[in-house]
Design goal:
With about 220 residues, the chain is mainly beta. The protein contains 1 helix and 17 strands.
Length: about 220
């Protein structure tokens, strides 16, 4: 009897934005161009997800991460409703599978930090800064049962300045578990932030001088 072929899983291998548009004109990332669609590629297929005309992807680039812990990546994006502001959304090759609430006001944005099981409960979490220029609130959401549910938040942090075309933060693990690396809300210091159960704790690393101050901390140089 012949051997059965192993199943082929169409994992996502890349994601990019397409259809540039100036219909929103927020320019938080330095210009008026946002994107109207997301292109997700697997080894065998290309999937294009077109937003309605009152939405844009207001983002630097899509991020691949295994959000549901099934061994294959999903896509994390910033999707903005032009009337209600930004939301953090997760797509797979079928389309959008989860989303945080929109901030609630036009021209309000968020900036992702990274993905990890921050509190060690076996569920994948996503961290982001809600309104890094205004509210400066760190929010951590967990993906569970097909939903993004907030598990912790704390004010006093930032990872973006108006006009930057990049986000200055990330997640590192230098042997003691995942740490979020970002700036104090007043940009005075680079800090490490951890989550224990539902409690957010921070410790200072070094004075903030330039974005390189954050990058060196991400490389476990502090």
């Amino acid at each position: 009897m012949g051997m059965m072929a192993a199943p082929v899983y169409a994992d996502i291998v890349s994601a990019t934005y397409s259809d540039p548009t100036d219909r929103y004109r927020h320019a938080v990332l330095g210009d008026a161009i946002e994107y109207g669609s997301l292109i997700v590629k697997t080894p065998t297929d290309t999937h294009k997800f077109q937003l309605p005309t009152d939405h844009v992807f207001e983002d630097t680039q899509p991020r691949l991460a295994d959000v549901d812990a099934d061994g294959t990546p999903e896509v994390i994006v910033i999707e903005t409703d032009m009337n209600r502001g930004a939301a953090l959304a997760v797509y797979d090759k079928t389309g959008k599978i989860a989303e945080t609430p929109h901030i609630g006001t036009s021209h309000r944005w968020l900036a992702p930090i990274g993905v990890a099981d921050f509190n060690g409960d076996g569920v994948i979490d996503i961290a982001y800064i809600d309104r890094p220029h205004l509210a400066k609130t760190l929010r951590i959401v967990s993906y569970k049962d097909g939903k993004l549910t907030e598990i912790a938040n704390k004010q006093g942090f930032s990872n973006h300045k108006i006009g930057w075309d990049f986000i200055a933060s990330g997640v590192r693990n230098c042997g003691a578990g995942p740490e979020m690396i970002l700036a104090r809300g007043d940009w005075s210091e680079v800090v490490s932030v951890t989550l224990t159960e539902s409690q957010i704790k921070s410790r200072s690393f070094t004075p903030y001088v330039t974005p390189e101050s954050i990058m060196s901390a991400l490389n476990c140089q502090h």
